[in-house]
Specification:
Layout lengths: L1 E6 L25 H12 L3 E6 H4 L3 H11 L3 E5 L5 H14 L4 E5 L1 H5 L1 H5 L7 E3 L4 H11 L14 E5 L2 E4 L15 H8 L16 E4 L2 E2 L9 H7 L4 E2 L2 H14 L5 E4 L8 H14 L5 E5 L5 H9 L2 E9 L3 H6 L8 H12 L2 E8 L6 H14 L3 E6 L7 H8 L29 H16 L2 H13 L1 H17 L10
Parallel strand pairs: 1-2, 1-3, 3-4, 4-5, 8-11, 11-12, 12-13, 13-14, 14-15
Antiparallel strand pairs: 5-6, 6-7, 9-10
Length: about 500
């Protein structure tokens, strides 16, 4: 069967795969990783696939329709996100107008959380996948192509569809446990997206970058984190260290130039034995590469030193707030003082830190916001991002905000401003949505324009060509936005 896998056109440089989808102020553009994993599973099952990433390929809607028609697509799987869902459904409708026999499937965190609402937006989407998409999409395509013994599409676990009685949502089946059996996502990139792989850029990382998973699921239960609560679950399922490092060797051999590999696991360091085993396998093979990962601010120094020895350059860490009360409210679960100790240990190990700070959570006030900004300056991480809470459907944060009346609207188009940048629909007790956005704009300026910080980055750029490219591209885009006002005020 000919299957189109599509990251639809929306804003230029729009990253659906981000945990907080938007256009960024640092020129970041994410790989369509989850879409590519699903495409790989379908291709391994004997289907012919066309993988189009419209934001990376600069494809408009008409160009996507032409490519789909030329390919002769019989089914289309579209990646979606909360801010883009109305656009994504419109793209699905346009595909069906161009190819009337086409079956459309929507995947992603938003439709996983809101399958009924999505299918009631019209008849553009035939199916919605709830939860992890790889095997569900594979089995759905088997049904659509009429394989003997295939479960009817409307009866498949994790599939939502319309019927005479309305919308039928089947509970998701078991999560995939044997992750080694899945095709490597880097091979999918190599086979279908290699021509544009240098378009993917992560502002805090060395580029070109390749993004993979070493495991799925996160054992921690932060109230705002959307991927564990909608797609991957809270049980951490691991690939074997051998399979992970086999894929790393493939990446080194097939992506040249390569800046670094990024492990997009929600918390790569959640299983410290697993992290250590991957590092030891890298060292045993003598594999030379640079890599980074997501982590919590609780990694012991001994493990940090091993990670550095195995090629770790940087960790992306959610510090979120300086307020113990706020951290407790969002179930961040870090003891007082641990964040500073972690940053000091990482500095001694030679690992850089990208710090994430989020405002607008329960308990936030003008005073806690200012304390968080001073905390960020004191930590003095290599890079930092400040953003208002973006509460997404399917998360505890979203449910709590809606129940308490602190969510202004469920018009998903309001999640971004007119330029595709983060807005917020959350209201604090004493802070408006626009005040939260304004604070993030100011925090970004104050963090990045400190003379000592600027001098340090100039020194890094002069000494390291790879860091120079990252700094010039990322900061060149960032500086355009440092003195602009975003959010509702930008409309």
């Amino acid at each position: 069967m000919k299957v189109l896998f599509l990251n639809p056109p929306f804003f230029p440089m729009y990253s659906r795969e981000s945990r907080s989808p938007s256009v960024t102020k640092s020129s970041t553009l994410y790989w369509p990783m989850f879409l590519a994993y699903a495409a790989g599973s379908a291709e391994a099952d004997g289907n012919e696939i066309l993988l189009l990433d419209a934001p990376a390929m600069d494809l408009g809607r008409d160009e996507v329709l032409d490519r789909a028609a030329e390919f002769g697509a019989e089914a289309a799987v579209l990646q979606t996100s909360t801010p883009s869902i109305h656009n994504d459904v419109e793209v699905a409708a346009a595909l069906k107008r161009r190819l009337p026999a086409l079956k459309t499937v929507l995947i992603g965190p938003h439709v996983s959380a809101e399958p009924v609402e999505t299918l009631e937006m019209g008849d553009a989407a035939d199916y919605v996948v709830v939860g992890e998409a790889d095997r569900t999409v594979r089995d759905l395509i088997r049904s659509l192509r009429g394989d003997a013994g295939a479960v009817p599409a409307e009866e498949l676990p994790g599939v939502a569809s319309r019927n005479a009685g309305g919308v039928r949502v089947n509970p998701e089946g078991p999560k995939i446990e044997d992750l080694d059996s899945l095709p490597w996502v880097s091979k999918v990139y190599d086979n279908h997206l290699h021509s544009c792989y240098r378009r993917y850029f992560y502002g805090a990382n060395l580029n070109p970058i390749v993004v993979i998973l070493a495991g799925r699921g996160c054992p921690f239960r932060c109230t705002y984190c959307v991927i564990p609560q909608t797609l991957m679950g809270h049980a951490y399922r691991k690939r074997s260290p051998k399979d992970v490092v086999d894929e790393l060797e493939y990446i080194v051999a097939h992506f040249d130039p390569l800046g670094e590999v990024f492990f997009e696991d929600d918390t790569f360091t959640s299983d410290r034995k697993q992290t250590a085993a991957i590092c030891e396998e890298i060292l045993k093979r003598g594999l030379k590469l640079t890599w980074s990962a997501n982590a919590r601010a609780d990694v012991p120094e001994e493990l940090l030193l091993l990670m550095k020895k195995a090629g770790c350059r940087e960790l992306c860490v959610g510090f979120e707030s300086a307020s113990p009360e706020v951290l407790k409210n969002i179930r961040k679960g870090l003891p007082d003082g641990s964040q500073e100790k972690f940053v000091a240990a990482a500095r001694r190990a030679g690992i850089l830190i990208h710090g994430c700070f989020m405002v607008g959570n329960k308990g936030d006030t003008k005073e806690t916001l200012e304390a968080t900004l001073e905390f960020a300056k004191r930590l003095n991480t290599n890079t930092a991002q400040f953003y208002p809470i973006m509460a997404y459907p399917g998360t505890e944060a979203f449910a709590e905000l809606r129940a308490t009346g602190r969510l202004k609207t469920t018009d998903w188009r309001e999640w971004l401003d007119r330029n595709g940048f983060h807005n917020t629909t959350v209201v604090c007790d004493n802070l408006s949505s626009q005040e939260l956005v304004d604070f993030c704009d100011r925090a970004r300026r104050e963090f990045y324009l400190r003379p000592g910080y600027v001098l340090r980055q100039v020194s890094v750029a002069l000494r390291n060509p790879k860091e120079r490219y990252r700094l010039m591209r990322g900061f060149g885009t960032l500086v355009k936005h440092l003195f602009k006002r975003h959010g509702d005020a930008a409309k």
